[in-house]
C-alpha cells in the first residue's frame, strides 16, 4: 500500500468504519462523511469492479453503471495490478451472495 495514504487521520477513519455494525449504520455515517457524489462514485467503482470480475464488456458496464471508459479502465488496472483489495472483499462477500 502506498505510504502516502498511511496517516494517523486515515487510521482514525478506518477505525471508525470498522466500528460500524450494519448497513444502516454505514448509511448514517457515510452520509455525514461523504458528499452524495463521492458516495455514488465509490459505489460506481465497486460495481464496475464486480462487473469486470463477471467478465462484462466495457460497453455493458458503461451502459449499466454510467461509468466512463476512463473510470472502467482505472478500475480494471486496479484489479489487475493493484493490491488485490477488490478480490479480498469479493471473496468475503461470496458466501453472503450465495445465501441471498
From TrEMBL:
Top-level lineage group: Bacteria
GO molecular function per UniProt: DNA-binding transcription factor activity; sequence-specific DNA binding
PANTHER family in the cross-refs: LMO1763 PROTEIN, TRPR-LIKE PROTEIN YERC_YECD
Stated name of the protein: TrpR YerC/YecD
Native species: Anaerosacchariphilus polymeriproducens
Lineage of source species: Bacteria, Bacillati, Bacillota, Clostridia, Lachnospirales
Amino acid at each position: 500500500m502506498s505510504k502516502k495514504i498511511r496517516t494517523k487521520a486515515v487510521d482514525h477513519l478506518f477505525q471508525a468504519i470498522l466500528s460500524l455494525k450494519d448497513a444502516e449504520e454505514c448509511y448514517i455515517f457515510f452520509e455525514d462523511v461523504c458528499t452524495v457524489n463521492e458516495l455514488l462514485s465509490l459505489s460506481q467503482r465497486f460495481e464496475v469492479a464486480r462487473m469486470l470480475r463477471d467478465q462484462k464488456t466495457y460497453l455493458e458496464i458503461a451502459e449499466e453503471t454510467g461509468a466512463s471508459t476512463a473510470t472502467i479502465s482505472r478500475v480494471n488496472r486496479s484489479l489487475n495490478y493493484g493490491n488485490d483489495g477488490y478480490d479480498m472483499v469479493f471473496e468475503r462477500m461470496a458466501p453472503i451472495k450465495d445465501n441471498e
